[in-house]
Specification:
The chain is α+β, with helices and mostly antiparallel strands and 282 residues long. It has helices spanning 2-29, 113-120, 125-129, 207-233, and strands at 32-66, 79-81, 85-88, 93-100, 106-112, 136-141, 143-149, 154-162, 168-202. The chain is rod-shaped and about 205 Å long.
Length: 282
């Protein structure tokens, strides 16, 4: 009985304490708190770099020999070379330079394929030197440099004529001028930046509130245990029984004589030969 009472008191204390703690936690949950939010924001940037390089667009770089005439009576006013040619596009600014290695003068023509055929048909040296249906020409020079515009696309011939008796070595250089090459490179780069923001909101239920709820539940459990113990220690009262008078057994009538069994002492009739109780002969 005492244990049950102590547990009941403990349950009451725990319940009151739990309610107080839970109420305090509830008030705490209503308080406003400010939270700092940090977010990483990726930013993608595109970077373009431009590089410029210059180079000479070479078309021909060749060294070749022209045979000597040996005899000025040879046809075509000398020995010529018509096999040096290149395919050129219309509008191209062609830079041509040549030089004879020993300083001999030569005659030079820059001819299209059609112009070359007309040039070959000439049979007079004066007409050969004065032929004017040409893209470019230069007479009697040991070295020369020129730049000319190509009027139409096609094969063009660099023709040299050696009017001398000795062989001539020619260095020929043909280029399309200095060309600038532009290279554009694009790269994508991702840069991460940090974004900070603030959020104000109620604190919400915390540990204090749930601890109070836990104490209340423990109090309920202790109270239930105390009641169970109290029920076991106090047995149910049984109502008193009604007094019943004992039954009176009628005593056997005393024998008419005072003869008794010599063995067991049981009363016997006066004329009994054997005892009714033990059966002993009298």
């Amino acid at each position: 009985m005492k244990t049950a009472t102590a547990l009941a008191v403990l349950a009451l204390i725990l319940g009151v304490l739990g309610a107080a703690v839970s109420f305090s936690g509830y008030n705490e949950s209503l308080a406003l708190v400010t939270t700092t939010l940090t977010q990483v924001v990726p930013t993608t940037t595109t970077e373009t770099s431009v590089s410029r390089t210059s180079r000479t667009a070479w078309i021909l770089q060749q060294v070749f020999d022209l045979e000597g005439t040996g005899d000025f009576t040879q046809r075509y006013c000398g020995v010529y070379e018509d096999y040096i040619h290149a395919t050129l596009n219309a509008g191209l600014m062609v830079h041509v330079s040549y030089k004879s290695e020993r300083g001999q003068s030569v005659n030079f023509w820059l001819l299209s394929e059609r112009q070359l055929q007309d040039w070959k048909q000439l049979r007079d040296c004066v007409l050969v030197k004065t032929f004017n249906r040409v893209t470019a020409a230069r007479m009697d020079t040991s070295e020369y440099e020129l730049t000319t515009n190509i009027p139409s696309s096609g094969e063009y011939y660099f023709v040299f004529l050696n009017p001398h008796g000795d062989p001539v070595t020619i260095s020929l250089n043909v280029d399309g001028g200095v060309q600038e090459m532009v290279t554009i490179a694009t790269s994508v780069r991702t840069i991460s930046s940090t974004k900070v923001s603030f959020d104000t909101h109620p604190a919400g239920f915390g540990l204090l509130f749930y601890a109070g709820i836990g104490l209340v539940l423990v109090a309920a459990a202790v109270l239930a245990i105390s009641r169970r113990i109290g029920a076991v220690s106090s047995p149910a009262r049984v109502p008193p029984a009604t007094a019943v008078a004992p039954a009176v057994t009628p005593s056997p009538s005393a024998p008419s004589t005072g003869k008794f069994c010599m063995n067991c002492g049981a009363p016997l009739p006066a004329r009994a030969t054997f005892c009714n109780e033990c059966g002993l002969r009298q």
